[in-house]
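Why do we care about 3D structure at all? Because function follows from shape, and shape follows, mostly, from sequence. That is the central idea of this module. The next example makes it concrete: a single protein chain, its amino acid sequence, and then its structure expressed as tokens.
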Amino acid sequence: MAEGSKFQLSVPTGGESLRGIGVFLAAYLVATIAEATVKWVLPEVGPAIAMMTRGVIGGITVAVVVRGRGLFPQNKKLLVWRGLIRCCAAGITYWVWSRGLPLVDTYAVLSIAPLLMTLLAVPILGEKAGWRSWAATMVGCLGVLIMLQPSGDLWRIEAFVLLFGAVLMALTRVWSRALSASDSPATITFWLMMAHIPFGLLLLPVFPPTGNVMTTNVLLLLVFFGVLNGIAQLLFARAFALAPVSALAPFEYSPLLFGGILGFIIWGDVPGWTTLYGVALVAVAGLYTVYREQRRRAAERAAASSKNQAASG
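And the structure:
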């Protein structure tokens, strides 16, 4: 159990952390494709329909994948709060986009989330984030800022509201790790999906559909988005069950890398030199984190081998 935490969390081994990082990267790859899909249809359906689709189709997807097992919640209170706050964070993002905040500036503000995750994990989970973890996360943040080059008028009221959304998002990430002490990834994901349904209904009068939702193409894209989102959130929950927040935080910047690749493949967007410099910094931060976990795993194996040799001797 982590010291200073009320949650019964075991200290992950180096091997578990490495598996968690791999699952986390897979989750963000799937989530990036899902985000590209929903952005495609968002002008037609609006945020409310997108959120309800995420809840209904995503929830069904999770139930099918786990064959309906392990969906009964244990820590009901924290699951409810996490679902509510996560939906609020998503609603804030939709609101700032509707107010015209550029996507590049949105990413620039949200780049504070990994730092907040590392910070919040200390009092909530009792994790000990050393200077190396902080350095890797901050280098990744610097790389994001170099890539994005936010405009001079970034600090407007929408950006400050989005900053609050980043705090909420970071909190729900840490709670994902906390919930792994009592609930399975399937439970955590399923009830997050369910929270989107009433939240989307509440947003429907504010963000009604602006186009024809019932066309075949739109419906297929919505179903595709919902399925991918359910899978991505299931992978996220599994990653936080395996690895500490401080090991995963530097990889919160990976959507920018995946998004850049998708942008080149789909739209032929060629990144500039500043983007490549930023990508290099993000990659260095992530690879250094993997290197640290591999070293820790090797040390654990050496210690276990020495212990076995001493016992046999």
